[in-house]
Amino acid sequence: MHGGAFVTGSQRSYRGFCGRLAKRSNAAVFIADYPKLQEAPFPAAPVAALAAWDHLIASGWAAHQIVIAGDSAGGNLVFGLLATVLARGERPAGVLALSPWTDLTLSGETITTSAKKDPLIPVSRMQEAVDLYMDGGDPAQPLASPLFASYPNPPPILIQVGSDEVLLSDSERIALATGATLDIWPDCPHVWQLFDGRLPEANAAMRKAAAFIHSSFESAKR
Q1: Is the Cβ–Cβ distance between 201 and 188 less than 8 Å?
Q2: Active site residue 72
Q3: Of 25, 43, 124, 187, most Cβ neighbours within 10 A?
Q4: What is the per-residue pLDDT across 146-170, written as a single tens digit (0 to 9) for each?
Q5: Strand, helix or coil for residue 160
Q6: How far apart are CA 157 and CA 109, in angstroms?
Q7: Which among 25, 114, 145, 165 is annotated as catalytic?
Q8: What is the mean pLDDT of residues 77-85?
Q9: Is 109 an annotated catalytic residue?
Q10: How far, in Å, CA of 108 to CA of 106, rounded?
Q11: Helix (H) or strand (E) holding 182
Q12: Burial 9-25 (b: 16+ CB within 10 A, else e)
């Protein structure tokens, strides 16, 4: 599930990045798309995420053969999807989340403390994005802010996030809620993994991500 603050990003724009992830992990990557907020507000995006999952299951993939992954707003959709499928008794092999935005109530401490350190996310525009996306809905509901969802018997989860990101608190709290492995990278910007092939830190993070995907599939076989 691609990122983009629910307002941008697409299958096309993420094709190169996902191709690199596929090559590194030796796995097929399915790039799901979803309506942007200017096309249809919440809950259109999480509904589309669940439809993508159901499409894969209907196409013959078993839940334990799928690692769900996403970055930023896509990470929000990933955790919302995880809570939904776990409640249905379906358990994916694993979850990979890159700098996920898990709390649309914007209550995370680092949204304030890292506002001047984060070079990519404009904190002054975050509430505007939430208001447009929610279209009058309550951002505290679990499908919108999966930080507040329940995760019975979660699969292995890896969260990668930069130490100076305003979304660091979102990652820290969802890691506690799900038992995820939290991988904090010093001095790395929001979703730096997109620079795989050009930035040493991105290369290293993607190697760890690919190793996690591989180990998740191996564990699911047991």
Answers
A1: yes
A2: yes
A3: 25
A4: 999 999 999 999 999 999 999 999 9
A5: strand
A6: 23
A7: 165
A8: 98
A9: no
A10: 6
A11: strand 181-185
A12: beeeebeebeebbbebb
Examine the pLDDT at 18 and tell me if it is beyond 90: yes
Report pLDDT digits (tens) over 91-138.
999 999 999 999 999 999 999 999 999 999 999 999 999 999 999 999
- Among the listed residues 25, 72, 169, 216, the single catalytic one is 72
Q: What is the mean pLDDT of the chain?
A: 96
* Whole-angstrom distance, CA of residue 197 vs CA of residue 214: 20
Phi, psi of 203 (to 5 degrees): -60, -45
| Of 194, 189, 188, 160, the residue nearest 14 (C-alpha) | 194
Instruction: For residue 55, indicate whether it is catalytic.
Output: no
How is residue 120 written in tokens?
């990519």
Q: Which two tokens stand for residue 217?
A: 């599939």
207 within 8 A of 183, measured Cβ to Cβ: no
DSSP string, 42-110: TTHHHHHHHHHHHHHHHTT--GGG-EEEEETHHHHHHHHHHHHHHHTT---SEEEEES----TT---TH
Distance, CA of 171 to CA of 190 (rounded, Å): 12
If you search the block for the tokens 């989340």, which residue do you land on? 97
CA 62 to chain centre: 21
Listed residue (148, 33, 159, 45) closest to 94, CA to CA: 159
Predicted local confidence at residue 221, as pLDDT: 82
